[in-house]
Amino acid sequence: MTRSLKKGPYVDERLLKKIAGKKPLETGVIKTWSRACVISPEMVGFVFGVHNGKVHVEVLVSEDMVGHRLGEFSLTRKFVRHGGKMQKELEAKKKEAEITASKSAKAATDTKKK
Length: 114
Fold this sequence. Notes:
The structure is a single chain. The protein is an alpha+beta fold. It has 2 domains: 13-73, CATH 3.30.860.10; 82-114. Helix content is 32%, strand content 11%. It contains 2 helices and 3 strands; from the N terminus they run H-E-E-E-H. A 3-stranded mixed beta sheet has the order 1-2-3, covered by helices on one side. It is elongated and about 70 Å long. The mean pLDDT is 89.
């Protein structure tokens, strides 16, 4: 559910104080736990360390992110790939193909040197 227009967007005052009067490129990572804070135009260019429950994930704010919340760019769940046994077999074949390709390329360069 969205916040009412009468109240306006929620922007954490402490974050605004941290970026007030500073230049985006000179300032380091600004750590925050405020995932619900809406990204405002003043935040563009800054790097925020948004806490995901375990670590601070670095988020570089761009113009496209204005209006979204900081928590949207710091995922809280780790994606574990799909596939299982069949996927492992495909990855093993792909890895073997890469190894053979690198060996053949190395052999070709060695013959050119002689």
